[in-house]
């Protein structure tokens, strides 16, 4: 069973969904769905109709959601592929899956901490501008000129 925190809005019909319907449901393009399959990011082969057209099942959509979220957090395609390989291999490698996810979580947390530091600088600059504008001396804000203006 794939565990995803998001429930798909409607049940997937027994016949499955076309690639266009799956793209709409998952929020990724049909091109991305094909790419995930080619890149080895899916855990089970996507069903096909007698005519060879892809048919996506609920499990496929849940897995695509996981891949999309991992990618959105900065996990590399190589990392997602490795995770997919482990999941597809079945039981017995849960420790390795856990280690992979914990490592990625630590990278995401480090990125968040770095973004928070950047945000502090932006907040400081906003405070400086508001203060100077309120004091009526915004013209004293630093601007690149030959003459040195006071530092912000």
Task: Throw out a few tags for this protein.
152 residues; mainly alpha; two-stranded antiparallel sheet; 2 strands
Q: How far apart, in Å, are the first and last alpha carbons? A: 56 Å
Q: Bin the strand percentage.
A: under 5%
Shape: elongated
Weakly predicted, low-confidence segments: none
**Total number of beta strands:** 2
Average pLDDT: 90
Secondary structure tally, helices: 5
Helix share, percent:
55-70%
Task: Report the C-alpha radius of gyration, rounded.
Answer: 24 Å
Major pleated sheet? 2 strands, antiparallel
Structure description:
The protein has five helices and two strands, in the order H-H-E-E-H-H-H. The mean pLDDT is 90. With 152 residues, it is mostly helical.
Task: Show the helix and strand layout.
Elements: H1 19-26, H2 30-38, E1 47-48, E2 54-55, H3 58-72, H4 77-89, H5 94-135
Antiparallel strand pairs: 1-2
Helix pairs in contact: 4-5
Question: What would you say about this model in short?
Answer:
The chain is an all-alpha fold and 152 residues long. 57% of the residues lie in helices and 3% in strands.
